[in-house]
Amino acid sequence: MLGSAAQNAIAFTDSLFLARLSEEAFATIGYVSVFYLIVAAIGYGFSKAGQILIARRMGQRDEVGLRQTFQSMLAFEMLLAVGAFLFMQFGAYYLFASMLDSDVVFYGSLDYLSTRKWGVFASYAGIAFIAFYSGIGRTNSLLLATGVLLICNVVLDYGLIFGYLGLPAMGIAGAGLASTISEYVGLATFLTYIYFDKPVRRLQLFKRQSIDWELIRIQARISLPVVAQSVVGLGSYLFFFGIVENLGERALAITNIVRIVYLSLSVPAWGFATAVNTLTSHFLGRDRRSVVQGLTYKVAWFCLWVTMAIALPVVLFPEHLLYPLFGGAQFDLIVEAKPIFYVLIAILAVFAYGAVFFNSLVGAGGVYYALKIQTLGAVIYMILVYVVIETGIGGLGGAWATEILYWILIWYMSARGLSARRWRGSDL
Description:
The protein has 18 helices and no strands. The protein is mainly alpha-helical. The longest helix has 37 residues, at 23-59. The chain is globular and about 55 Å long.
């Protein structure tokens, strides 16, 4: 769960501190952090192929294959990081200019990226380590690295946003710098952990060998639909925030409150989804195809219960649980967002099932079918969001409710894909 939540948690802490700075900064981070999540999701999506292959090689007890897969994945991630950095350096200005009406949000987003873009190299390298440890089923390192990263981000946000601890007051740019430094600290934690991890040291992950370009090509082929899924999914979310921004900074700030709660409460579901992705691939590697469908249903059911146990108290009593987090700041936004929190319960319920089934399908190798599902869902979702907001039907609550239909479609089509055994032809 923590490995899957690292980027969301960074966005969460940045938002909490910027809420104390100003409502405009809080609205801005709501938009630009979604953009950066897309950047992170591209690296995360390409690592999925590595994770699936690593889990498969682990099931086959192929240590040489494990090392080759990891090195190829890491090299590929670094190439991607260069491309992502160049886009943020030269392309983000034109993207934001085409989507945003508010000058405050536009220039604030650029200020944040001016320091945040440098962290993409550490982010993508860290993603490779997360994929490796998730693939071999030894996730204690994720707990340590993510914990160190978050503690560092909290301390640096406090210092660099407001100018405390002897650091300069940089505002929203300080939040970006804090997150960047924290990602490099998290990466250093991973490297230190690997040095003392004897079972992994035995694999000689960094043993010098020639780059296997054929393996990189295979990973790219498998990953492209997964990346496309991430871009389509989060791109539709960026579209949603862009449409809401047209309603004004106040509406964007309220939406950001809901987004923070949503991202926080969706952590268990993303954790279970990542786990079922690995488990599915692992069992297929051991030629135990018959257990996949039953396993997916069990994980989804457990995910639903855990998600609801965590979500219901927060959603039903936001004044008591969220007010302390914001330190009294933006309390009126919490009150205005409360009706949308009730919609969030339904979203989380169908999301818990949909995310698990979707990732089981991806882990089984049905990546192209999964891309078709998500593209169809995203197109329908964006059309509904546009119609609801432009016509004023249901207000912000109605716009958020469209996501319920999105996840019902994802769940239904993924379940059909698994039951139809579309993944039996996988050659991973």
